[in-house]
Prior knowledge:
Blueprint: H1 2-76, H2 81-93, H3 104-113, H4 119-137
Amino acid sequence: MNRIVNRVNDFNRRVRDLEEQVRNINARVNTLDDTVLEKTKDLSGDIQELEDEIEEIRDRMANMEVDIKDLNRERRKYVSKQEIEEIENYMELMNPIKSSFMTKKEVKKLMSEREGVTKDEVERMIDRKIKSMEEQTGSNAFGEDKI
């Protein structure tokens, strides 16, 4: 009988130990549950903030795209660098200070001194003038072949 009592006591002690372990495990699980729930709430808040920031960035990008399109439309209204250079070349070519234009009086005087000028002579004078202009500007100022 003593043996049976000792065994029952031993079983009772083991059961109490197991119950204590179960309580400890339950406490840990509850703590872990609380921690997981808290972290989940924090992460949900962070995710919502990120989604809001992403939406704001999308809106800003859309506004930037509209601004870029407006800028491109405005840019088309302005003269390009190449067009300015072309205008400068024409202005340089037509510059009365550097160019040697003749007045009607000078042409008539020259024609009367020479007793008339032939068509070939006029063409040669024009060719010489064009060549001298090309040499001054470095190339044909009109961007065309001579006629």
